[in-house]
Amino acid sequence: MNGPYILRNVAWYVYMLRCADGTLYTGMTNNPEHRLAAHNDGRGAKYTRGRRPVELVYCENCTDRSAALRQEAAIKHLTRAQKLALLCNSIPPARGTMEHPEKEENVLMPVFE
C-alpha cells in the first residue's frame, strides 16, 4: 500500500517501564512486547538507552490511539509517588499474559515477574 494509511482495529497500550537505575519511563505502543524488546535493544526512547535493562511493570489497554496519548500524558504528569501508588493499586494479570482474566476493556495491567 502506497501513501499514508490509518491503522484500524488496533489495540493501543500505555505502559510503564522500571529502568535499571530505578526510574520509571512511560510510553504508548500498539505492541507492548515488541516495544519492550526495542527498549532493551537500545532502539527505544533515548531516555531508556542508558538505563538498560528495563522491565515492564504496567500496561493499560486503551480504546484507541487518541485515548492512549491522553492517558500517557496524564501518567507523565503524576509524581513518582503517585505512579508507584498506581502500580500498587493495580490488579495483576494472569501470570504470563498481557490480558486480565476478569475484564476486557480499559484494563490496568501491571506486569510482575
CATH uppermost class of the domain at 23-95 and 105-109: Alpha Beta
Question: What is the helix tally?
Answer: 4
Shape: globular
What's the mean pLDDT score?
82
Secondary-structure element sequence? Answer: EEHHEHHE
Strand content: 15-25%
Which blocks of ≥5 consecutive residues have pLDDT under 50?
93-107
The CATH topology of the domain at 23-95 and 105-109 turns out to be GIY-YIG endonuclease
**Approximate helicity band:** 25-40%
- The strands making up the biggest β-sheet line up spatially as 2-1-3-4
- Structural class, judged by helices and strands? alpha+beta
Number of beta strands: 4
Overall radius of gyration = 14 Å
Please describe the biggest sheet, giving its number of strands, its sense, and whether it closes into a barrel: 4 strands, antiparallel
Q: Can you name the CATH architecture of the domain at 23-95 and 105-109? A: 3-Layer(aba) Sandwich
Distance between the termini: 40 Å
